[in-house]
Design brief:
Blueprint (H helix, E strand, L loop, with lengths): L1 E3 L2 E3 L13 E6 L5 H16 L3 E5 L4 H8 L5 E5 L6 H17 L3 E6 L16 H11 L3 E6 L8 H10 L1
Length: about 170
Amino acid sequence: MVITGNHWYNRNVSREGVKQMTVVGVSGTRELTERQAAQATKQLRSLLDRATKLHVGDATGIDAIAYKNASKQMEVELHETEGRKPYQLQQRSKRMVDALMKDRGTLHAFVNKPCPEGITVNSWAGSGTWGTVRYAIAKGVTVKLHWLIEPCGQPDWMQQKQLSLL
């Protein structure tokens, strides 16, 4: 990896021959079945193999798998929480999304349940991952869902935001 000013380059090369920065953020469930952990590990390895920078939280589950599978060549920004209360976890996730937005990265959310009713930008009751997705979309960050169960319908707020971008 080469650093030139504020640009990080990796093996992804544009048509002009200049290598491009690929920044990813990862969010996901803390509790996984063995099958879900294996599926997520495979997807994360492929995703992180192409990334130059990773934004990730300090939780168990998906965060820990992503952190463990980050390549030694990439920059890793570990977003730590100041406690385990829901509002502290939410603050950590918002800091991660804000940093990801500044880096023009993409949030990859690994979900293993449908989005609970009532998720808003400020109220994440029932799912920190879906709350992080909601916040990222509100901030204009690109989000890619990685379903660890059979895909469910997207929440209305996700579809509405996508329609407003067209």
